[in-house]
Structures are given as C-alpha cells and as structure tokens.
Design brief:
Structural class: alpha+beta
Number of helices: 13
Radius of gyration: 34 Å
Shape: elongated
Number of strands: 10
Distance between the termini: 26 Å
Length: 414
C-alpha cells in the first residue's frame, strides 16, 4: 500500500472524529503556544536589560571604596564612611592608565530641590565633563559646566527632566533660573536629554549634575571621593583597564604585595564593570527563560500522552477494520504506518496551530502588558520539531500494537 493511500485513510479517520481529533491535538497546541510565548518573554527581557546596560555605557567601570580595616580593632567600616579614594587617585588613574578614554570623580548627596512654591526630593551628583560621555548623557538645553566652574567650585547645575517637571510644572524654561538644594542656591545652566526608565524601574532622569568640587566643598564638606567612574577605550579592553587601575590604586594606597613570609593586603577599594553586571543579569534571565520553557514544555509531554491515549482507543475501536485490511493483503508495516501517520498529522496540525497561537499570544502580551518580547526563529523551529517528535514517539507504540494484531482474532473482535 503506497503512502498516498495511507495518508487518505488517516485523513478520513481524523475527519470522522473531528471533535475528538481537536481535543487530542489541544494538548500539543497549548504546549507549543506556551513554549513560544514563554521564550519570547524571556528573550525580550534579556534584550531589554542588555539595551539598558548599553545605554548606561557597556564599557563603564565603577570604582568605590571598600574592604577597609582601618577602624578600631581592624573592624571593616561601612562603605559610605570610608575615605580611601582621594582626588590624587583620580589624577593618577587619569595620567597613568592607558586603557581608559574618560574618567570622572563622583560624589553625591540627597536632599530637597526647591523653586518658588515647588519642591522635589532628588540627588545631586558631583562630576566633571567626562561623566556625560561615560554615562551616555547629553545636554538638551543650555550648556555643560566648564573647567573654570570646577576650579571655582561654582554653584551651577544641570537638571534631569524629572526634576524639571517637578520644579517647573508650568513648562517654563529653567535655564538661567536659580533653584535651591536644601538651603544652597544653584543657577541652572542646562537640562539633560530625557532617557526614561530603565528595565529595573529606575528613573534615569531623576538627577542633577554639578561640578564635583562644588558638591565636595559646599554641600558635603569633605576631601575624599564617593567613587570614580571611567570608561574603557573599548568593551574588549575593560579587563585590562581594571587590572591597570588596580595596580595604580594599590601603589597609591601603599598596599603590600604577597611575599614568602606574608599575605598581600586586601584592596581597600572595589572595581565593578558593566560587563560584569551584564554577565550576571544575562545568566539570571537565561535561567528564568529555561525555567519558563521547561514549565511550558510539560504541556507538550501531556499533549503527547493524550495522543497516545487516543490512539490506543482508536486501535481498540477499529480492531475489526484492521483485521479486514490485513485479511485482504495489508502488511503489518502498512497498519503501523497508517496509525503512525494519524498521530503525526494530529501533532503537526496541533503544532502549526500552536505556532500561530504562540506568536499571537506573544504580541498580545506586548500590547496589553507592555512587556518586551522577542520571538527567535529557533524557538518556533524547536517547538515544531519537538511536537513532531512527540507525535512519532507517543504514536509509535499504539501503531505497533495495531500492526501485531492477529487478523483472524481481529475480525472476530466485538
């Protein structure tokens, strides 16, 4: 018996029991749709996080104080109270490091910004001009402060868009106006271009930039830095830049290296890169995507078991038909192929409907829940291949059972 005849017989058998065939394929449909939707959500989240990290500067390096044991009794101090980073460290890194293209001291303070009857809580960040390039920020209106402003510790600032909206709700131009941070007046010389929220829900526009000398002297009254932010020449040179910065800081801080008789002193600073953060976030999102895919994949197994169950029922119902076919010359392999083709048709049809439903559900999630999605072609191919394999795997045993029936006993079956 040729395969075209077997295909016609399988299609007639499926058409004769439309509702049962649909319910049989329903498990496959739900499984495939779930896998595609879950993987689209997982990959969308991963790409969104990668995009936000790239916006912050994928080659950014952050240096902060840490691991200092200079308190009483050698007890570790809180990072916020450490004074291990100085302006001399910033200058040394700027002058000696060959793998960075931008560097800025950073100090910050939180407080209340006031203009007229309007006020808003926000933070002021003391930085230099390189900070804009490092963090991929840009001035939308006005101008950036100058080296002269830094040397003079000038009370000038650049507002983020969120602060502008809170202090100037009437839409007036803030450039040239004088606002107050707690009780200290600052003249607004510029407004940053809007960046919006990142994937972690942080408002990237809720900040104010000012010369680092101004924040250190006029607000914090301190001579040490809260941190140093810099950017490697390229993302690939980030690790070399970190190694060079570590060497410079250990030399500046007179930290002892390991010898035969003593261990090396711990670093009294911490260095983190966006590459490290991206790697950590990627591993987390990958794990979540795999988890979501596995949970959704259970539906495919349930769908396969459903196919096997229905094929068993079909074999039992059509025992006399099988006996008649074998009595007129059908071979066992023909009976095997007939029922196997039915199982594959059910799974493939369910897979096609599931793919369409999964793609539609993914875009529905994007439109309704506003979640980022990304449908990868391999997820569709994988889902379809798995559902086809499921049809073959779970349909083979019932088909084999049908092929092994004794023709005489099958004809006598009631």
């Amino acid at each position: 018996m040729n395969y075209s005849n077997l295909l016609k017989i399988a299609l007639r058998a499926i058409a004769a029991n439309k509702l049962r065939s649909f319910l049989t394929a329903l498990g496959i449909i739900i499984g495939v749709a779930s896998v595609i939707t879950m993987l689209a959500i997982g990959q969308g989240s991963k790409r969104s996080i990668q995009a936000n990290i790239a916006e912050m500067g994928s080659n950014m390096i952050m240096i902060s104080p840490g691991a200092d044991r200079r308190g009483p009794g050698g007890v570790r101090q809180d990072a916020s109270s450490m004074e291990t980073l100085k302006l001399t460290d910033y200058q040394s890194i700027k002058d000696e490091c060959n793998f960075i293209k931008g560097i800025s001291p950073t100090v910050n303070s939180s407080g209340q910004w006031i203009y007229g009857n309007n006020n808003a809580p926000s933070s002021i960040y003391g930085v230099n001009q390189d900070y804009l390039d490092i963090r991929q920020l840009s001035v939308d209106e006005g101008e950036m402060f100058t080296d002269a402003d830094i040397k003079a510790s000038a009370k000038v600032c650049i507002l983020g868009q969120t602060v502008v909206d809170n202090l100037f709700p009437d839409g007036s131009d803030p450039v040239g106006k004088v606002v107050r941070f707690n009780s200290i007046p600052f003249r607004v010389i510029g407004v940053l271009k809007k960046k919006g929220y990142n994937s972690m829900g942080m408002d990237q526009d809720d900040l104010v930039l000012a010369p680092y000398t101004t924040v250190m002297k006029r607000i914090l009254a301190q001579t040490y830095l809260g941190g140093i932010t810099c950017s490697a020449i390229t993302e690939g040179l980030t690790n070399k830049a970190i190694d060079e910065i570590t060497t410079i800081l250990r030399h500046n801080h007179k930290l002892k290296e390991a010898t035969d008789t003593q261990d090396a002193d711990d670093d009294d600073f911490n260095i983190r890169s966006q590459e490290e953060l991206a790697s950590m976030m990627n591993s987390t999102t990958d794990m979540m995507t795999i988890l979501l895919g596995c949970v959704a994949g259970i539906s495919l197994i349930v769908g396969g078991i459903g196919i096997m169950n229905i094929m068993y029922v079909s074999v039992t119902e059509r025992t006399r038909e099988i006996g008649l076919r074998m009595s007129v010359g059908a071979r066992g392999v023909d009976i095997l192929n007939q029922f196997l083709i039915e199982a594959i048709l059910l799974s493939v049809t369910g897979g096609l409907i599931g793919v369409a439903l999964g793609v539609g559900a993914s875009y529905a999630v994007k439109l309704i829940a506003h979640w980022p999605i990304y449908i990868q072609p391999w997820s569709i191919i994988m889902s379809f291949a798995v559902c086809t394999f499921t049809g073959v795997f779970f349909g083979w045993y019932p088909a084999k059972k049908a092929a092994q029936l004794d023709p005489i006993e099958a004809i006598r079956y009631e």
